[in-house]
Amino acid sequence: MSYLYNYKLTTNAEFLRVDLLDEIRQFSGKFSDIDIEVCLTYDENMHTDVTVGDILSHYTAALPDGDEIEIKRQVKRFVKHSLYMTLSEISGIKLPWGSLTGIRPTKLAYAYIAKGGQVDNVSGYMQSTFAVSSHRANLLQRIIKAQRSALSQMPDSAVNLYVHIPFCDGRCNYCSFPSVDISKKGSNDLLSRYVDALISEIAEMKKFIAVRNESIFSVYVGGGTPSVLGENDLERLLNAIAADNCEFTFEAGRADSFSCEKTAILKAGGVTRICVNPQTLNDDTLARIGRRHTASDFYKAYFTAKEAGFDINTDIIAGLEGETPSDFAHTADSIAELQPENVTVHTLSRKRASLLADTELSCPDIERMMDYAFMRFSDYEPYYLYRQKNMVGNLENVGFCKKGKECVNNITVMEEMVPVYACGAGSISKRVGKCISRFASPKDVGLYIDELKERTDKKLMFLSGERVE
């Protein structure tokens, strides 16, 4: 790891500076000491002149059309792509996702289909328009097909209910989620008070859903680490949610916070799907990244959940500090032997609020690791994908599933297909449509508890489509 690079960028398109810097950063410091200039001009077409050192490249495209938002979107894509093509040609580096830096490549595929494009032509469109590699473009096409099949019976009245538990027993160095460390003095009392407030908010949210004749399509209890809840608080929470006939996911997360007693409570509470996430099955790495459990703890939690009859997701991460391709292969092989219903393979990302925020991540073998994952889980179907800024190797996070075991919450949330009604401190509710609107609850747990009624009322106004001051 090294500290973040500084880049020498000048441009007359200042509104695109952040996007252009994101494009340059994808080349991992290759252009950190070189002057780069990007100039955008218009006549009967639009033009981009990209100068890197003493090399000048020129690009032309038709003037964009549509409303103001669409025009800005087309201009941004053109200028970013022009910069990418120049940097790629000079460096000889072809990035797997080409000029794309956004988190949802699938959005572009769905937009293409909405304008009359064919699903079977998605791969070619992504390759020709954004210089996406054939492997990633084909992957995207497969994912679109899997998603359309999984959601074929989704009702028009569908909403997702998200419940947030912002508490953890320690902090992993790659994590950016705000959370309270329950190992600190006084945190257990705060946790119980938080559950009281959360149950109250869930009750109001369920009334709201009933009045609007909406149906809960999926429930997701995330965090943080929801399984740090004590047995009594866990049972009270599940009784408040009381979801029937829908996919219900609970993040057991860290294996050290899971038990047989909690498993029985989850089963009785209607949970259908559990995430038991090792991230890696190498004990040295687990200690280095701040997870307070061992590989043995993971196996104990996994088999406890499996014996109870839950569908199971496991998360693993490629590119963790100090790991070699053989370390990652050991984790992938071990998970593949277990045959969980879902496997999510993440690429390490430098998240703004994580302990890695001030470092430039590097893992020369990251693409080999991800290629190994695709090979090892070839008997699974890739069904959702997303990316994050500052990912190692400009790669992606991919969810794999056994046939018919797609997590509909992952699909609909990532593709922003249905509203998200979110409860809890740090949770974000979402309205969907031509524009995506969000309502964030306070991250501070104490503030969430103290201002619960006022903020819940505002949230319900927001979800009703009313303007909230």
Helix/strand layout:
Layout: E1 2-3, E2 8-11, H1 17-25, E3 35-42, E4 45-52, E5 55-62, H2 68-91, H3 105-114, H4 122-130, H5 134-150, E6 158-165, E7 167-168, E8 180-181, H6 187-211, E9 215-223, H7 231-241, E10 247-253, H8 260-268, E11 273-276, H9 283-289, H10 295-307, E12 311-318, H11 325-338, E13 342-347, E14 359-360, H12 366-376, E15 381-386, E16 397-401, H13 408-414, E17 420-423, E18 428-431, E19 437-440, H14 445-450, H15 452-463
Parallel strand pairs: 2-3, 6-9, 6-17, 7-8, 9-10, 10-11, 11-12, 12-13
Antiparallel strand pairs: 1-14, 3-4, 4-5, 13-16, 15-16, 18-19
Number of domains: 3
pLDDT averaged over residues? 91
The whole-angstrom Rg is 23 Å
Instruction: Please outline the major beta sheet.
Output: 9 strands, mixed
Please write the CATH class name of the largest domain. Alpha Beta
CATH fold-level label of the largest domain: pyruvate-formate lyase- activating enzyme
Q: How would the global form be characterised? A: globular
- Tell me the span between the first and last alpha carbons: 44 Å
Strand content: 15-25%
